Amino acid sequence: MPPGYVGPGSRIKVRKEGEIITETQKSKKVCKLLKSLYGLKQAPRQWFAKLSSALKTYGFTQSRSDYSLFTKETESDLTVILVYVDDLIVAGTNLNEINAAKAFLSSQFHMKDMGELRYFLGIEVDRTDDGIFLSQKKYTLDLLEEYGLSQCKALKLPMDSHQKLAADIGESLPHPEVYQQLVGKLIYLTITRPDIAYTVHVLSKFMHAPTSIHLQAAKRVLRYLLGAPGQGILLASKSSAHLTAFCDSDWAGCQNTRRSTSGFCILVGESPISWKSKRQSVVSRSSAEAEYRAMALTVCEVMWLQQLLQDLGIKNMGNTPIMCDNQAALAIAANPVHHERTKHVDIDCHFIREKTVEGTINPCYVTSSEQVADVFTKVLPTTQHTHLLSKLGVRSTSLSA
């Protein structure tokens, strides 16, 4: 209960000696909240409103693509602040501007400078000559220790390629929260581990009613992580500021609903910055339709990233190649005459044509063997899985400085 609350219609008086007297009144008012406190529903909103107001006063601009991103741009310098609740990352091109921003924040709030970015919300940051390496090694090792699998034999794939998980296999778990907590922790691990994104996507379908088979499949992911707990992604320092997107789909891959799975990965130069594995909202009648819907999902993400990169000072990036391995989907995107194939496709998918004409995107063909997005739609053989991860910018350990 909030301080000062005794009961409906009550208030507290304090005498000079410190004695507390409770008086009952007919009014139902209890207390007036003068500042937000931890634990109250409005606390995060009030804190962010205060923080954003202070940053705007100092000259920062709030990004419309990501409201937790604030930028301050001068003629030659750029300062960026990224906010997560009460944790902030400050970056920029001028150290003096960064120090000035930190001094301003310290004058407005009780702040603690943690120094150079090394560890943030479970993500380890390692700077090398080749770029910035992001991993969750400690988080992974703690997860393996928690479930007693740190001494098991490591596996080469996160999911058995011969097993098809369904909702009605196995015995129901008496305590489903064990499975739900494990999958929730694995979801957070996909921030730096795109190689398990598809497997975690499949496991997430059974959160409401998990079985023993599902739990066994989830623990298999831990045994896969044991092989390379320090694996992460490299944001290359010499990478070109150009977007490249890969999209793919697994037609009717869901055993329960026969819906297809969309998968995409977007790179800046050679560095992966966005990826997703998601079940489509409708049943596709053909593989071409499934691929076309996956392309539409990818284009939406590309447009958002282009706006976000513009806020970060990267402009005039040119068109973005959308790499697809389905010739029929590429033909639909280029030619609006395919009436019989496309008349049942929702109109919101056809904005791909508009963006192609505008020059925002450029649908291109890529062979299936080089389709990076396959990692997000299906279980691959070990050799192909390793090959595509290397093209994706995934590294087992950070490179030497």
Automatic annotation (TrEMBL):
Domain of life: Eukaryota
Matches recorded under SUPFAM superfamilies: DNA/RNA polymerases (SSF56672)
A Pfam cross-reference name: RVT_2
Sequence ranges assigned to domain Reverse transcriptase Ty1/copia-type in this UniProt record: 25-159
Protein name (record): Uncharacterized mitochondrial protein AtMg00810-like
Protein's organism: Spinacia oleracea (Spinach)
